[in-house]
Structures are given as structure tokens and as C-alpha cells.
């Protein structure tokens, strides 16, 4: 309407845009209609954002659960590996005693140690 106002003014008896009923209607009603539609649009966009946030929260929750399960399994496997290593090291330490013949071990265990008093005099 505003763009064609020059041709409308030249072709009729209307001298200004304010005399046109269409222009008066737009000036009177457009801000109200735009505000209502703007609010409706904003409500729709907020609902979309809420739905998107809800979906994102569900995705984060699933990722958190999967991460917790994976880390728990990895920690359990790591502790099992460490337990196997400790058991192997313990076996290696006590394996030496299995290599010594049993009668020799008994003889060494029951052997009496005699401490002589002469050794004390040599030190001092």
C-alpha cells in the first residue's frame, strides 16, 4: 500500500495516505496483530526449546549410564589384573621354599644356634 501510494494518490481524489481507510486499518490494527502473533511464535519456539532440552537431558542421562557401566567394568578388570599379578608375585616369593628339599628345611629349622661369649669380647 505504501509503495503504491503515489499511483493511488494520482488516480483518485485522495490527497494523503491518512485519508485511505486501508491505511488507517493497518495503522490501527497491525501492532496488535503483530504483537499477538509474535507472542504465539515465541511460545511455540519456547516449547520447541523445552522439547529439545528434554531430549538432550535424556541423551545425557543415557551417556552417563553407559559411561558409568563401562568405567565400572574397566575398573573391575584392572583390579582383577592387579590381583593376578600380586598372586603371581606371592607364588614366586614362596616358590623358593618349595625348591628346597624338605629334610634340609627341617634340619635348618631345628638347628640350634650357639652363641659363644668370645665373640662379644672380640667386638669390644
Automatic annotation (TrEMBL):
<keyword id="KW-1133">Transmembrane helix</keyword>
<keyword id="KW-0472">Membrane</keyword>
<protein>
    <submittedName>
        <fullName>Uncharacterized protein</fullName>
    </submittedName>
</protein>
<feature type="transmembrane region" description="Helical">
    <location>
        <begin position="61"/>
        <end position="81"/>
    </location>
</feature>
<keyword id="KW-0812">Transmembrane</keyword>
<dbReference type="InterPro" id="IPR052994">
    <property type="entry name" value="Tiny_macrocysts_regulators"/>
</dbReference>
Amino acid at each position: 500500500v505504501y509503495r503504491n501510494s503515489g499511483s493511488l494518490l494520482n488516480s483518485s481524489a485522495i490527497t494523503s495516505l491518512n485519508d485511505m481507510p486501508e491505511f488507517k486499518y493497518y495503522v490501527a490494527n497491525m501492532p496488535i496483530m503483530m504483537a499477538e502473533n509474535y507472542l504465539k511464535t515465541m511460545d511455540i519456539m519456547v516449547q520447541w526449546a523445552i522439547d529439545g532440552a528434554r531430549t538432550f537431558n535424556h541423551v545425557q542421562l543415557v551417556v552417563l549410564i553407559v559411561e558409568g557401566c563401562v568405567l565400572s567394568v574397566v575398573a573391575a578388570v584392572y583390579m582383577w589384573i592387579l590381583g593376578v599379578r600380586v598372586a603371581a608375585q606371592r607364588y614366586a616369593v614362596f616358590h623358593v621354599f618349595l625348591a628346597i628339599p624338605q629334610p634340609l628345611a627341617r634340619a635348618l629349622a631345628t638347628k640350634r644356634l650357639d652363641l659363644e661369649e668370645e665373640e662379644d669380647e672380640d667386638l669390644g
